[in-house]
Amino acid sequence: MSTFRAALSRELLVLWRSPAEIINPLFFFVMVISLFPLAISPKPETLALIAPGVLWVAALLAVMLSLDGLFRRDQESGVLEQLLTSPVMTVVPVTAKLLAHWLLTGLPLVLVSPVLAHMLQLPDRVLGVVMLSLLLGTPALTVIGAIGSALTVGLNRGGILLAVLVLPLYIPVLIFGAGVIRTAMEGGPVPGVLAILGALLALTASLGPLAVAAGLKISSGN
């Protein structure tokens, strides 16, 4: 736990010193959703119809935008090589990095989502479900994307390959994330769909760091 806390503090400090990596995903998320009323229609019924998909696709793309350079700085500075050869299990600092990354890039998306959902004319009774679905879904998106980022860290211009690798894996989270919002809009029961999102989060949180650590070793040739 002491190693985990030290790694988490380091990752938070490194990210905090790079404000662009924190602001860019949030700015992208806000701007993409803000453009839809201008591009499609300002009619409330039209916006409410597309809102679940728009929110989740924008969140997915914002998370992917932040993941391309997740391990690249560590590779360029030599920290990644030290991490892979240290006596500490690689999964411990990897878990700390993923948690720090989500706290400073994914959590802001969750916090701002009710405002954007209201702008897309979603009913007030649904705003809590929007926030809860993203709270459960964005960590899973981060972990899944980190697996692709670990596998492509040694490649130049690996962003396209990263998208090819992780987009199919994002589909279940996207389906149930948008589906729970649509279910809430229709007045249906949402606990079951939220439970599926929670199960996906538990699966990715438990196995994802192991897969990321393995991907880093594969990329480095260790």
UniProtKB/TrEMBL annotation:
Is Transport one of the keywords UniProt gives this record?
A: yes
Which stretches are transmembrane?
Answer: 21-40, 46-67, 99-120, 126-148, 160-181, 193-216
Any one Gene Ontology molecular-function term assigned to this protein's record: heme transmembrane transporter activity
Q: Which GO terms describe its biological process?
A: cytochrome c biosynthetic process; cytochrome complex assembly
GO CC annotation, single: plasma membrane
Q: What is the membrane topology noted in the UniProt record heading this document?
A: Multi-pass membrane protein
Subcellular location(s) per record: Cell inner membrane
Superkingdom of origin? Bacteria
UniProt keywords (A-Z) are: Cell inner membrane, Cell membrane, Cytochrome c-type biogenesis, Membrane, Transmembrane, Transmembrane helix, Transport
Q: Which InterPro entries match?
A: Cyt_c_biogenesis_CcmB (IPR003544), Cyt_c_CcmB_bac (IPR026031)
Function summary: Required for the export of heme to the periplasm for the biogenesis of c-type cytochromes.
Q: Which family does it belong to?
A: Belongs to the CcmB/CycW/HelB family.
Q: Protein name, please?
A: Heme exporter protein B
